[in-house]
Amino acid sequence: MGPEGGGDALLRLEGVSKRYRRSGLLALDDVSIWVGAGERVGLMGPSGSGKSTLACIAAGLLSPNAGHVRFDGVERSGGGRLPRGRSAAVRRAWLGMQMVFQDPEASFIPTMRLGDAVFEGARYLPRFKGADKDRLVREALEAVELPGSYAERFPYELSGGECQRAAIARAVIGRPKLLLCDEATSALDVTVQAKVMALLGRVHRELGTAFLFIGHNPALVGGFCDRIYRIGGGRITEELEACERP
Ligand SMILES: Nc1ncnc2c1ncn2[C@@H]1O[C@H](COP(=O)(O)OP(=O)(O)OP(=O)(O)O)[C@@H](O)[C@H]1O
Ligand SMILES: [Mg+2]
Questions:
Q1: Separation of 82 CA from ligand 2 center, angstroms?
Q2: Which residue in 55, 75, 211, 235 has the fewest CB atoms around it within 10 Å?
Q3: Cβ–ligand 1 contact at 52 (below 6 Å)
Q4: Which Pfam families match (predicted)?
Q5: What is the pTM of this model?
Q6: What is the 3-state secondary structure (H, E, C) of 179-242?
């Protein structure tokens, strides 16, 4: 399918441009991409090409200067806040996208125990109201092969790889429809990287989660994704199906 495909896309960015105000830099220039339900889409490009900017806009953490972002049938406005006073459907759609970043330790609050941090991603969901938090957290940690006792630990008491697995546990505990991974394995050594990739593959198979998977490494991105966008200088330069993997 070409760039016009994906009629009922789960995530769609259309004509998105972003100029950083202070530097005046045009980081994204008329970018249109989409991710179908359950699809694993890669985004690959050199350093500074706009990948993280695009991720932040998709997540609603940054506002675009032009263009539209729709996720799960709901238009996303930037600002990074869970929309208050909106309908439950809007809030649920917002929580249906979760993120895993490059630096796992920095994505945790240093003074919050892991158990509370992992549950943070789920506590707003209606189906977890009155749920047994300790059991849910233990199951989420065990699913990423961390001992349940780690719920009592602080992020700095974990290794980088363990911390990244905890970040994945936090991201998937609420069964998101889309997982946005921005260089999620780049900071890890090769064996830990392989384990985390296997874990993400299992999340995809078992939960049907779609991915927007950002990375540098063609073998890694190509090995995981069904379809890949290349980005350069803030513009999408190419779209590849899995059979044309680089
Ligand atoms: N907050 C900001 N203010 C001004 N310029 C920014 C800001 N964040 C990023 N940029 C610039 O926007 C461009 C795109 O940055 P971005 O972080 O999106 O790139 P990237 O593709 O994720 O790179 P990397 O692979 O190194 O993570 C770069 O030139 C960067 O210097
Ligand atoms: Mg980046």
A1: 23
A2: 75
A3: yes
A4: ABC_tran (PF00005)
A5: 0.90
A6: EEEECCCCCCCHHHHHHHHHHHHHHHHHHCCEEEEEECCHHHHHHHCCEEEEEECCEEEEEEEH
